[in-house]
Specification:
This protein has 146 residues and is an all-alpha fold. It has one domain (3-134). It contains seven helices and no strands. The radius of gyration is 15 Å and the shape is globular.
Length: 146
């Protein structure tokens, strides 16, 4: 199943943008983490349904953190994490902030959600950008990155 079909299947199962991004990232690593997927729900609909910062962007930043962030007391953040997140934010601002006048969910999809059809494309392109950033910074996309 290609990535877009998988994203649509997850959406039909009731998962939102930020959850879908992390689920795809976990699947790419051969992992499952229902607790993390549940936690990602708080980013849906622009941070807890407030319409604020787009969940695709915040979910993408979390996916970068899954690869490059500190997870154990003996770990350290990878030095590239903040740079990758900054690159993602700048890319998102250029791609969607300029096109829709904001990086806020409510501005992207509209007050009444009339443009929710934009979400699958934004999630798919954000996922691709996250993968590009990871590869550019020396991360293997599959398996654990210890």
């Amino acid at each position: 199943m290609d990535e877009m079909m998988r994203m649509l299947a997850l959406q039909q199962q009731g998962y939102c943008c930020s959850q879908i991004l992390l689920m795809l990232g976990l699947e790419m690593r051969g992992e499952e983490n229902p607790g993390l997927v549940r936690a990602m729900r708080a980013l849906c609909g622009g941070v807890g349904g407030t319409g604020d910062l787009c969940g695709a962007l915040t979910g993408g930043a979390c996916l970068l953190g899954l690869y490059a962030g500190k997870g154990l007391p003996t770990d350290e953040d990878d030095f590239s994490l903040d740079l990758m997140v900054a690159d993602l934010v700048e890319w998102f601002k250029t791609e969607y902030g300029e096109a829709y006048g904001s990086m806020r969910c409510v501005e992207i999809i509209g007050e009444s959600g009339e443009h929710q059809d934009r979400c699958p494309m934004i999630v798919a392109q954000t996922y691709q950008k996250v993968k590009e950033l990871l590869v550019e910074n020396g991360f293997e996309l599959t398996g654990e990155n210890l």
